[in-house]
TrEMBL record:
Gene3D superfamilies (UniProt xref): P-loop containing nucleotide triphosphate hydrolases
InterPro entries (alphabetical): AAA+_ATPase, ABC_AA/LPS_Transport, ABC_transporter-like_ATP-bd, ABC_transporter-like_CS, BCA_ABC_TP_C, P-loop_NTPase
Taxon lineage: Bacteria, Bacillati, Actinomycetota, Actinomycetes, Micrococcales
Superkingdom assignment: Bacteria
GO biological process entries: D-alanine transmembrane transport; L-alanine transport; L-isoleucine import across plasma membrane; L-valine import across plasma membrane
Region ranges (Disordered): 279-324
Keyword check for Translocase: no
Name of this chain's protein: Leucine/isoleucine/valine transporter subunit ATP-binding component of ABC superfamily
Organism of provenance: Nostocoides japonicum T1-X7
PANTHER family in UniProt: AMINO ACID ABC TRANSPORTER ATP-BINDING PROTEIN (PTHR45772:SF7), CONSERVED COMPONENT OF ABC TRANSPORTER FOR NATURAL AMINO ACIDS-RELATED (PTHR45772)
């Protein structure tokens, strides 16, 4: 392990360690190009947000970064944890990428609804544990110690996300916002260096959104985990992101600091569904036109989030396609 130098969260530079290095990836499904020649870098310790209207290719990007989809063109390398040597992602299975330090949550929540909250988190933790299935079946001493450690760690993570009082409730019985936080706890259980959150605030109320913003900051600043965030709620995004990347129709149309993105005519146009020129003219006429105003919901409502479908599956091993 090589030590990395501490650098500020903003103003990425060549000197910073790169987590994901994405070069010119293109992903097609038949005639649909869901990612079109996109390049980006995610730096160690940053909160990087990916925004864009529905169908822009955000989830496809996450799926490409985690081995669910393989882009037909381009390269992706990953250094999951601090000091890791960059390795290619292309061609690797999702569980391998998870072991390389990448955890994620899904746009459509994926929990084991018939397991308790605690058990769901333990599933995440145990994907990282050493005792194999045979030791587990035989209940060997190592396995029993790991079991105790895993239970303790699961409680700690539930506490972190504010769900310790729900430990023994079935995941399926939790309120929607609680399920989203539980999914984050389970993802953290795999001990990631980077976490990918796909619309973690979708379907949650304003109080839950504020708690979520605090949680995201805590994960980043206290746990030292790099965060890649897809989120439609502009107020939330602008309050937590160090930097943003904007996708539209599969292409990257902008990249920059929150204040730059909020005023970017191409970005405003993408959200309004007009041309950049029209958006610029509108912005000049109405200086307050930004992606989000301080007190109001601003244009957040223009990019309505997809509702969850409540599908369940084995979240730790599945390579099935993310439903959209
Ligand atoms: N498995 C798939 N099969 C066919 N088309 C897909 C698939 N996954 C994504 N797409 C298409 O790629 C585009 C981007 O989708 P997606 O990445 O889900 O966008 P976003 O997450 O930004 O809303 C859409 O046109 C979508 O229909
Ligand atoms: Mg999506």
């Amino acid at each position: 392990m090589t030590a990395t130098t501490e650098t500020p969260a903003v103003s990425p530079s060549e000197g910073r360690e790169i987590v994901f290095d994405v070069n010119h990836i293109t992903l097609r499904f038949g005639g649909v190009t869901s990612i079109n020649d996109v390049s980006l870098r995610m730096y160690r310790d940053e909160i990087l947000a990916v925004i864009g209207p529905n169908g822009a290719g955000k989830t496809s990007l996450f799926n490409s970064l985690t081995g669910v989809y393989t882009p037909q063109e381009g390269s992706i390398t990953l250094a999951g944890r601090t000091g890791d040597a960059p390795q290619t992602v292309i061609g690797k299975k999702t569980h391998v990428i998870n072991h390389m330090g990448v955890a994620r949550t899904f746009q459509n929540i994926r929990l084991f609804p018939a397991l308790t909250a605690l058990e769901n988190v333990k599933v995440g933790i145990e994907t990282r544990m050493k005792a194999g299935p045979i030791a587990s079946m035989l209940g060997l001493p190592n396995q029993r110690r790991e079991e105790r450690e895993s239970t303790q760690r699961a409680y700690d993570l539930l506490k972190l996300v504010g769900l310790v009082n729900r430990a023994n409730n079935l995941a399926g019985s939790l309120a929607y916002g609680e399920q989203r936080r539980l999914e984050i706890a389970r993802a953290l259980g795999t001990d990631p260096g980077v976490i990918l959150l796909d619309e973690p605030a979708a379907g949650t109320n304003p109080v839950e959104k504020r708690d979520l913003a605090d949680l995201i900051r805590l994960i980043n600043r206290e746990l030292g985990i790099s965060v890649l965030l897809i989120e439609h709620d502009m107020k939330l995004v602008m309050s937590v992101a160090d930097r943003l990347i904007v996708l539209n129709f599969g292409s990257k149309i902008a990249e920059g600091l929150p204040e730059e993105i909020q005023r970017n005519p191409a970005v405003i146009a993408a959200y309004l569904g007009t041309s950049a020129e029209e958006a610029e003219a509108q912005a000049e006429a109405q200086p307050e036109l930004e992606l989000i105003a301080d007190e109001t919901e601003g244009m957040t409502s223009l990019a309505e989030s997809t509702e969850p479908d409540g599908t369940s599956f084995d979240p730790t091993t599945s390579t099935e396609e993310e439903s959209r």
